[in-house]
NAD(P)H-dependent oxidoreductase subunit E
Amino acid sequence: MLKTTANTEKLHNFSKVCEILDKFDRQPSKIIPILQAVQEEYRYLPEEIMTFVATSLGTSPARVFGIATFYSHFSLEPKGKYIIKVCDGTACHVKGSSGLVETIQRELNLSEKNHTTDDLLFTLETVSCLGACGLAPAVVINDKVYGQVSKQRMKELITEYKTMEA
Ligand code: FES
């Protein structure tokens, strides 16, 4: 089910998707870059947009859904503006990454099942080795890497990002 967001409004406005489709000349062979562009715009692949893309390309929704579910970088669930990736590779795990996950869940009211905040500001993900083991425990928020993150620092980071949005 869709969360209440500004995205809801976006969903009913297909002009962005039309722009994306035009950019790729409505070529069915460009389906993957089209879906990538749609995901960049909406931060996930909304069901009704995928159906619209399928119809516009003259292909079946089943094919589009098939591609979207096949590639792991596509998300069918709404995602937050800020994706917090906590590394849970060996080095980070040893240095307490699970404590960071718990801290984030508590601060943002998230759980094992619910990874995205209702305001669509944050999504929590765990990943295996980010390739920055010297910085363990490492956290990446969107493209920014934070090293040797303590629970306290994690709380501060969340506050900093929230403040940026306030
Ligand atoms: S284990 Fe976390 S960066 Fe390598």
The mean pLDDT is 92. Residues 87, 89-92, 129-133, 136, 138 surround FE2/S2 (inorganic) cluster (CB under 6 Å).
